[in-house]
Amino acid sequence: MNETQKTHILRALNKNIRFDGRTLTEFRDVSVERGVSETAEGSARVKIGETEVIAGVKLAIGTPYPDTPNEGGLAVGVELLPLSSPRFELGPPGIEAVELARVADRGVREAKAIDIKKLCITPGEKVWIVSIDICTINDAGNLMDACALASIAALQDTRFPKYDGTELDYRTRTDKKLPLTKLPISVTVHKIGSAFLVDPLPEEEEAAEARLTVATTPDGTLCAMQKGGDTPLKFEEVNAMIDIAMEKAKELRKHI
Amino acid sequence: MTYTKRLDGRKRFDELRPIEAKAGVIRRADGSAYFRIGRTIAYAAVYGPREMHPKYLQNPKGGVLRCNYNMMPFSGAGERVRPGGSRRSKEISMITEKALSSVVDLSDFPNAAVDVFIDLPQCDAGSRCAGICAASIALADAGIAMKDLIPAIAVGRVDDKIVADMDYQEEAYEDGPVADVPIAIVPSTGEITLLQMDGEIPKDMLMEAIQLGIKKCMEIYEIQKKALKDKYKALAEVVEP
After folding, report:
1. Which candidate from B70, B115, B121 shows the least CB-CB separation from A37?
2. Which of A28, A33, A137, A167 to probe by mutation at the B interface, max B CB count within 10 Å?
3. Which of A62, A91, B85, B143 has the maximum number of C-beta atoms within 10 A of its C-beta?
4. Which domains, from first to last, does chain A contain?
């Protein structure tokens, strides 16, 4: 992004004007559709404006880690498909995909969204492994919040496949849901100049100096954060950004 | 033994599963499409003509069509599919390129690449054909010069019957021999641009299956054209309500 464009965005933001006419703390239309992939044990499509991602959950049986013999496993992956943007390329996940996956993972893990003790089948031997994969369909900004929301919605949609103690039958789905508890909602606040805004367009993401992703549980407890961007944040700024994120999380929570 | 009734309840052996096709579903792409046949879903996006990287692959005589077929990690009926491509997905990417390249004219774009990305969120057999159908709609949607669209379908035999568009259950039929024959054609000439076969089939049955495939491709061709027309009709309505 060149300086002229950035100056233009900044000047407009100082007058509270954004590219698409929204206020600084206004999200684009958000939609969550569940059951979008029949092959996944759970799935969801999240659209935030023109941004679109699909998350799918696969369940498998594996061995627990030796230090947590009673706990199931969780793995989150994000695929920034070259299908969804000219800036994504084929190949192993780059740092952007890794960060998106790690932030979504920490939200779920630290909120204790899944009661992983209930994923234990035989202590020390057999546990359920939950894999959430999020694939981007169209990148029009704010993949961070879209990926986090999609992973939660896909977990809610998940039903266990039939398991008789020896064989896992993926083709027969039971009614049994995942043991979900406190579900986190992530909201990312971006700082451009002196303005704080949510749900950025790609141009705004590029112009942003810093961002802060905040995940909160239903009772308003913070469960994960991630600061991004090259510019440092002042204590007061962090304070203000968390307030915005927590306020917007209440709004997004209606979708789960 | 005879195969008397299709396992998924279709009434005829030459009947396709329900198809839904849409053009222009991915805003960031230069052209895109969604193609659903039964429970198999393919998205395709086209980027280009754009600069070809790595540079040593550039062709000064014309642009190069590159296709990439990819199953999303949760798109398989069984275990999670590891992301990052397999030998299978590499091969399908290559045969997809070959199926499409003869109708795509990139002679005006030396050293450029046209990239086609095919991603599937859900697969139930026939995914390479669904990918090719989606890709050709997406290429047309991107405004790439083309002699024709390419429809594709899998035909074959289940026991004594010649069938079109097998789903997974039929491919896995155990009470008799099965053969799977994916084909793609150039509708204006009737030429075949994709032909694979696996299974067991006598030659006369195979020839009959291919003929059925050509006929079924013509049905899909109409659906592909309609998807493109519908997109532009919808745009026209926005301009002149």
Report:
1. B121
2. A137
3. B85
4. 11-255 (3.30.230.70)
